[in-house]
Design goal:
Distance between the termini: 131 Å
Number of helices: 9
Structural class: mainly alpha
Radius of gyration: 33 Å
Low-confidence stretches: 1-23, 242-250
Helix content: over 70%
Oligomer: single chain
Number of strands: 0
Mean pLDDT: 78
Length: 250
């Protein structure tokens, strides 16, 4: 009698051989993805795309905020000098950055007011600067909302993939009429992989969103400083004009 025939006569050995034959040999992440259900595959692909989007937004917005913040500090340094509004406008005429837009807006209002420095002129300047600040703030924050969406929804999308994988595991149990590991393992594996991908997509999105929110708040503070500097510059020019008129009247 051969060894295989002897093993075949042993019930435990036969079950072990069957389990070993049915058990998936490739339980690597790629193997689990390849053997997953089509719905779970769609969930995994969506989460991978969301993770790629998160890091793309981080790279793009970080570069943009650093560049615009450095330029804003440079413009503010020019505003802090003893300089006239027309000279600042001339220096920033070709610029499309936020501080340049603030200076150009103030200069445009001064031109429309005909050089008349009064309280109404200051109010009009303040309104213009407030509108420019709001527009530039919306522009710099563009694209960050997707991070909040990914951070809020990715865990639930991963949970959906988990539930679907567990359902497949139970379906396999009911069809095979057995609870051995060979039947349960594929569904459990793909369910756990979907959960992991959901966390991989959500955690960086939340962290990066909070980081970008702080950076954008710092940039908005720079715009507020630039608006204050422009208002101070306008006020000084108005006082100097009144002083010259008073000296001429004497």
């Amino acid at each position: 009698m051969t060894a295989s025939a002897v093993l075949g006569m042993l019930p435990g050995a036969g079950l072990a051989a069957t389990d070993a034959a049915l058990l998936p040999h490739n339980l690597s992440p790629w193997g689990m993805f390849a053997s997953a259900d089509i719905v779970v595959k769609a969930v995994m692909i969506g989460l991978a795309f969301a993770s790629l989007t998160t890091w793309t937004v981080w790279l793009a917005k970080t570069t943009e905020i650093r560049r615009k913040s450095a330029l804003a500090r440079q413009r503010i340094g020019l505003l802090e000098r003893d300089i006239q509004l027309a000279e600042v406008e001339q220096a920033s005429r070709d610029g499309n950055d936020a501080v340049a837009q603030i200076v150009q807006s103030a200069s445009r209002e001064a031109e429309l007011s005909g050089g008349l420095f009064d309280d109404g002129f200051k109010e009009r300047i303040a309104l213009r600067l407030e509108r420019v600040e709001a527009a530039m703030s919306r522009q710099i924050a563009r694209g960050t909302g997707v991070l909040a969406t990914i951070g809020a929804t990715a865990p639930f999308v991963g949970l959906f993939g988990t539930v679907w994988g567990i359902m497949n595991a139970f379906i396999g149990i009911s069809e095979a009429h057995t609870t051995n590991l060979a039947v349960v393992a594929p569904g459990i594996a793909e369910a756990l992989l979907a959960t992991a991908l959901g966390l991989v997509a959500a955690i960086p999105a939340v962290v990066i969103y909070n980081h970008l929110t702080r950076s954008i708040a710092a940039y908005r503070a720079l715009l507020g400083d630039a608006s204050v500097m422009v208002m101070l510059l306008v006020s000084r020019e108005g006082d100097r004009s009144l002083f010259r008129l008073a000296r001429a009247a004497e």
